Amino acid sequence: MKATGIVRRIDDLGRVVIPKEIRRTMRIREGDPLEIYTDNDGEVIFKKYSPIGELSSFSTQYAEVLSKVGGYPVVVCDRDHVISVAGIPKKELLERRVSPALEEMMEQRRQFAITESDGKRMQPVEGVDRYALVQAPIIAAGDVCGSLMFIAGENPNPATDTEMKLIQVGAAFLGKQMEE
Question: How do residues 97-125 score in pLDDT, each as one tens digit?
Answer without folding.
Answer: 999 999 999 999 999 999 876 668 899 99
